[in-house]
Design goal:
Blueprint (H helix, E strand, L loop, with lengths): L2 H36 L11 E2 L1 H8 L3 H10 L6 E3 L2 E5 H10 L12
Antiparallel strand pairs: 1-3, 2-3
């Protein structure tokens, strides 16, 4: 083992750590964006914002498939349909999520 080998391994480790730090920064930015959406807002402008199913999934965690199936069954969050486009109001999503809050599985109603 030479000093050059050690230096090479050290540089590889630093590169890997830099990549890892970049990935962590991206994840932190995503989490901050999600948290911002979950905070109460004053005024209606944010609650009136329309989201696609993909955006609902990334912000609120509801899968696109769940949203599609629940739209057919009629037991999901309210949505707006314009032509073939389906959109969800942020305020409606927040209200729907709050209405489904339970404290125990014993008290869930069976639909």
């Amino acid at each position: 083992m030479s000093i050059h080998d050690d230096l090479g391994r050290l540089l590889e480790t630093i590169g890997a750590m830099t990549d890892h730090a970049s990935n962590l920064e991206a994840r932190v930015r995503l989490l901050e964006e999600r948290l911002a959406w979950l905070q109460p807002v004053s005024g209606n402008s944010e609650d009136d914002r329309l989201l696609s199913r993909s955006e609902v999934h990334s912000i609120f965690g509801l899968t696109q498939r769940y949203l599609e199936v629940s739209a057919v069954r009629g037991d999901g969050p309210p949505f707006i349909k314009v032509n073939r486009s389906v959109k969800y109001r942020v305020g409606d999503l927040r209200e729907w999520i709050a209405a489904h809050r339970v404290t125990s599985t014993q008290h869930e109603e069976v639909a």
